[in-house]
UniProtKB/TrEMBL annotation:
Stored InterPro entries: HCY_dom (IPR003726), HCY_dom_sf (IPR036589), Hcy_S-methyltransferase (IPR051486)
Keyword Methyltransferase tagged: yes
EC number(s) from the headed UniProt entry: 2.1.1.10
Cofactor: Zn(2+)
Protein name, as recorded: MmuM
Matches recorded under Gene3D superfamilies: Homocysteine-binding-like domain
UniProt superkingdom: Eukaryota
Record-listed Zn(2+) binding positions: C318, C381, C382
Alphabetical keyword list: Metal-binding, Methyltransferase, Transferase, Zinc
Native species: Acanthosepion pharaonis
GO molecular function terms listed in the Swiss-Prot or TrEMBL record: metal ion binding; S-adenosylmethionine-homocysteine S-methyltransferase activity
Keyword Transmembrane attached: no
Residue intervals of the Hcy-binding domain: 89-396
Amino acid sequence: MYHDDNQPPYRCHEVSIYDLFSPIQHHVSRVTLVESNVYEQRLFCWKLLYDWSTQAMVTCPFYVHKFTVVIYLDCLQLSLDMTSLNHFLQHRPGGNQYPLTILDGGTGTELIRMGFTNIDDDPLFSAKLLSTNPEAIKEVHKRFYKAGSDIVVTATYQASIEGLQKYIEITSQEAYDLIKKGVLLAKQAAQEVQSECPDRKLLLVAGSVGPYGACLHDGSEYRGDYMGKISIDDLKAWHQPRIKLLMEAGVDLLAIETIPCLAEALAIIDIMNDIPGCRGWITFSCKDGKHTCSGDNFSESINQVMMSKCVVAAGLNCTSPIYVTDLLDTLRPYSVVKPIIVKPNSGEMWDTSHKWHGGVKNVSELAKVWVKNGASWLGGCCRVYPEDITKLKSAVMNL
Ligand SMILES: [Zn+2]
């Protein structure tokens, strides 16, 4: 109806006015839009008002990203955050307490399988390809979306400003631009998959934030033993620029992942608290069925981070599948108030002869148990490929 021909055709977000306002319909006196200079968003709001008065359904022809609608309730005023994340959280299919959401698998290991084997030993890991082969990163994101992922994670896990400057000898501005490019590639992948597959409407982008240890390139990200060597203030100063940049570049949420210890998670939450609208998930790497990789109690860590209003979901990633059921069991005594994330790796071990061995073959079967034990956001990590995500999705969606 008010589709702008200059806009890309991927914008097909549907918003029901009843979903938005029906609980308070008798008190709505005025609806208006603030903090937006975007013409089509203002147009949408006018249409919203008109259709409110005529009780019609509203279809929003553009991809809602971030804007705020203020509803005037007689003399009260409420702000409604109409981000795509909010819309996503409210419109997931399924009847569980927290509807199932499918995340992606290992971006880096899929790139390695595509032939980019040199990133395995690179201090920037998959972020190296942001400068050399950005199309390959976009292709991996598309593979995961097509495999069934609702949310993919940007290739910025090891992309700190400092690391990018050091290892590819670029200026800080160029490093900033590369991190933003990581977001753009994932957003382009979502848009291209949406135009190829019109039934895939709600595809989100999470900005990957790895732990400080990942930049040290000495395996300490899986031990967390750097925490005694860096002050919390220095840790926050290291994390803050990337988090701010990812938010500015328009990610729907952050993926704070492979965090070995609670103290680093809490430092990151402090940073998020200072950035308006900043939200994300936090996943810990775990070394057994009870502890994060640094030895913190997993269940206490989850409960602490879930208390933050910035955290929309929490759980584990890059952890062997053999520990997941026990880790979920530790959460049973608590009334967990947000979705629990399970993103294990393949369980394979890298041995001294430089070969992968072992691994858990029946992850999809295990995933059914994990869902029964409370997990609702599921995906994978290292050496979990798009076809594994498809298998996982069909296993848990048919429960
Ligand atoms: Zn991993």
